[in-house]
Automatic annotation (TrEMBL):
Organism from which the protein derives: Chloebia gouldiae
Pfam family, one: FAM210A-B_dom
Name recorded for this polypeptide: DUF1279 domain-containing protein
Keywords: Membrane, Transmembrane, Transmembrane helix
InterPro entries to which the protein is assigned, alphabetical: FAM210A/B-like, FAM210A/B-like_dom
Taxonomic lineage from the root: Eukaryota, Metazoa, Chordata, Craniata, Vertebrata
Domain DUF1279 residue range list: 28-115
Amino acid sequence: MEYKDAAEPLKKAATDPSAENKKLNKSQQLKQVFKEYGAVGVSFHVGISLVSLGIFYLAVSSGVDMSTVLLKLGFSEASLQSRMAAGTSTFVLAYAVHKLFAPVRISITVVSVPFLVRYCRKAGFFKPPAP
């Protein structure tokens, strides 16, 4: 009978940071970025959220039928009906669509902030990390 090392998956997770990120859900990943990169992570996410809300407001106020667009992107009919009621204001509709795209914004933040901080450190804008 062959015995396998029970700690093998733990060793792999400890040495492979991407494996650790795959186990965390999106909000946990975002919290980890905020904890590790502080104000840069928060500022980047708030900035991207404001841009996202502005783009969706502009689209809705321009007359784009957002329910048709979202159905073509693969969102389910049930999730659209629960988020977007008929006769809502432009801002409320834009905000609902903005909230549907939260996983996309979180993913962009989680991927982009480490690269942004690394670039700023190389350029001399930020101090190098403490050892």
